[in-house]
Amino acid sequence: MARFRTRLAVVGSAAALAAGAVLPSQSASAAQEFQWVALGDSYTAGAVRAAGDTFEVPHDGCERTDRSYPQVVDRDLGGLFDLVNVSCGAATIDNVTDTPQEPVGRHLPPIAEDPDYPFPAVPPQSEAVGADTDVITVGVGGNTLGFADFLATCTRLGGESGGAGTPCKDAFAAELPARLKKVRQDYDRMLAVLHERAPKAKILSVGYPTIIPDDASTCTFGDLTQFGTITRGDLAWLRTDVLEPLNKTIKDSTGTQSAAGFVDLSTPSRKHSVCDDAKWIEGFVTLPDRLSFVHPNTLGHRSAADHVEKAMLDAIS
C-alpha cells in the first residue's frame, strides 16, 4: 500500500468526483491508473430486474445489471478506477477462487425459461485479477452456505406447517455449523489466492445487507412480495443463526489479512429489510409480476455503492 500514499492528488480528485464535481479532462486521465476488479455473486452482479437492466453483450448468463453497485461506483468515480466486473449470479466462493462456473441466467423452470440457456462456462473470477490490480471488491459466500436452498426449503416446509413453528430450523440447524465452517475455510483460501495473484492490491470484502428485520412478526405470512410461506419463527432463525453468522464469518476471515478490509452493509440497511416499507431488498416477487427471489433493488445497490466507494477511496489514500 505504500505506493498508494504517493498519489494524494489523485485521491483528492476522487473525493471531488464523489461529491459530484466536474474535473478537467487532464485530472480524469491521470486518475485512470487505479485498476479495480469486482468479484462476487448475484448480490454484486444485480441479477434481478429490480436492480436494473442486463448490459453484457453477448449475454453470458451472469446477469450483471446496470444499476448494481459496481456499475454505480464506476459512474460515480468517473475515470479514477478502471473497472473489470466479473461478478456472476449464483457464484460460490470456489467460483471466485479457482472453479469455472456454468451461469444459469434467469432460467428457473418451471417458473421462468431463459431463451439463451444453457450458457458456456465462465472462468474462475480470480483470473481477472493480476499484478497490476490495485483494488479488489468481493461479495460472496451466501451460495457456499446454501442460502438460496434455505429459502426454497423453508418456503415449502412453512407452507406444509401452515405458518406454525420452526420447521426449517428443525431440519437444518444441526448441519449449520459445518456449513459455516466451510464458508470460513473457502473464504480464507480465496483471500490467499487473490493476494498471491495481486500482491499489492487492497482487498475489500463486501458483506451482505440486512434482509430480515429484527422483529420477524412484522413480516406477513403468505405474502410473496416478502418471504411467502416461511414461518416467522424460521425467519428469526435465518436472521440470527444464518445471515448474521455469515457476515461475521466473512468479517473474521477478512480480519486475518493485513491487506484486506470489510465493508459492512448490514448496519446501514437495518431499517430497509424485505418486510420494511422503505425496502432495499425485494422479496420473492416484485410487483406486478417480476421474480426477485430476495435480492437488493436499485436503492439497496445505491446504498452499497456509497459504502463501497468510501472504502475504495480509503484504500488508495
SSE inventory with pairings:
Elements: H1 8-18, H2 25-30, E1 34-40, H3 42-45, H4 69-76, E2 81-85, H5 93-97, E3 135-139, H6 142-145, H7 147-161, H8 167-172, H9 176-197, E4 202-206, H10 232-254, E5 260-263, E6 285-286, E7 290-291, H11 298-315
Structure, briefly:
Mean pLDDT is 91; it is low at 1-31. The protein has 317 residues and is of the alpha/beta class. The protein has helices at residues 8-18, 25-30, 42-45, 69-76, 93-97, 142-145, 147-161, 167-172, 176-197, 232-254, 298-315; strands spanning 34-40, 81-85, 135-139, 202-206, 260-263, 285-286, 290-291.
The CATH class designation is Alpha Beta
Proportion in helices: 25-40%
Strand order of the largest sheet: 2-1-3-4-5
Distance between the termini: 9 Å
Question: Any idea what the CATH architecture is?
Answer: 3-Layer(aba) Sandwich
Number of separate domains: 1
Number of helices: 11
CATH topology: Rossmann fold
Strands, total number = 7
What does the radius of gyration come to?
19 Å
- Helix and strand content put the structural class at alpha/beta
Uncertain residue segments? 1-31
Principal-axis shape: globular
The average pLDDT value, as a whole number, equals 91
The quaternary state of the protein chains shown equals single chain
Strand content: 5-15%
CATH superfamily: SGNH hydrolase
